[in-house]
Amino acid sequence: MHQKFPATRLRRNRIASWAISLSAEHTVTTHDLVLPLFVQDGNNLKTPIQSMPGCYVYSIDQLIIVALEAQQCGIQAIALFPKVAQHLKSESGDEALNKDNLICRAIKAMKDAGVMMGIIVDIALDPYTTHGHDGVLVNDLIDNDKTLDRLAEQASLLAHAGADVLAPSDMMDGRIGMIRSRLESERHQDIILLSYAVKYASKFYGPFRDAIGSQSHLGTKDKTTYQMHIANSKEAITEVALDLQEGADWIMVKPGMPYLDVIHLISLNFQAPLFAYQVSGEYSMIHHLAQTTQQPFMDLMYEALIGFKRAGAQAIFCYAALEVAKSLG
Ligand code: PBG
Question: Ligand 1 within 6 A of 282 CB?
């Protein structure tokens, strides 16, 4: 380092807001954001999610309204999550494979209504199972290979329904390869696979599980036999390498804020587009901070989002994406 005071005064870069803006290394734009949305059966419903202020579970008619608004604001993609009615849940999660299920109908309805954005859907069984796990339970253990068959089936179904991006969030080994070859064999060669390659067994998913109603089923059980241990980062490299080799196009690290080091590590080691998921618990935390310290929510949110860009993410799943888009103008 050859810079020396006073020839170098870094405060010159901060002399005014125009200088700060011009010398900024990163920005967050609307095009960086994916808006996750929750959908339920019914009509004219917009049910508030208690632990996520400002977020709702929409019936399909209302979902369309929000999606079109997001589209108008320049958001490029939405991610859909179903809140499945209790009577449709089962031990094996069969409703996930019903070609007329809620999520398939939601995709079709949105396309019919003129939604042109990318539609991303989760591949996992947890919204559909009575035990709240992402896979098939055999003798109290998640059976990896039995789950793979179901996930490939679910992927095929959602591709037929018109989804643009399939996002396996289940953390079974080998699922990207299974799903990719299924899609190829059905001439769905242009479907993007966004792999939740690096998904930790995190406590920050609590509000999401409340929203889709999987927490009450899961009870005190956790997902530590398939989601990654929170202490690991080298393992993340192996997860990503395997998924890319099996045919993933995009890579997700989840949660976001407690794992910025992992996002950075993956961004340095791989060329594939990298997504960060600012999960439900992060969203709730920021809301709580805004409320208890009376600071603008958007300032806190923007600071958190730019952290993902600095760490090396291209895009971010963010429950506040619509609000952020509006405030960015
Ligand atoms: C389930 C899934 C989860 C999230 C997205 N897909 C929760 C889980 O693994 O239990 C969490 C998202 C969030 O907390 O915002 N396959």
Answer: no
User: Known catalytic residue: 83?
Assistant: no
3-class secondary structure, 157: helix
What pLDDT is attached to residue 213? 82
What range defines the domain where residue 307 resides? 29-328
Does residue 249 fall inside a structural domain?
yes
* CATH number for the domain harbouring residue 81: 3.20.20.70
Check pocket membership of 134 for ligand 1, CB cut-off 6 A: yes
Ligand 1 centroid–CA 84 distance in Å is: 14
Task: Give how many domains the chain has, as a whole number.
Answer: 1
Residue 4 included in any domain: no
Protein residue whose Cα sits closest to atom 6 of ligand 1: 169
- Which strand (E) or helix (H) includes residue 194? strand 192-199
Structure confidence by residue, pLDDT tens digits, 247-300 = 999 999 999 999 999 999 999 999 999 999 999 999 999 999 999 999 999 999
What would the pLDDT profile of 200-230 be if each residue is shown by its tens digit? 999 999 999 988 888 888 888 899 999 999 9
Cis amide bond preceding 273, omega within 30? no
Catalytic hit among 83, 89, 223, 254: 254
> 254 catalytic, yes or no?
yes
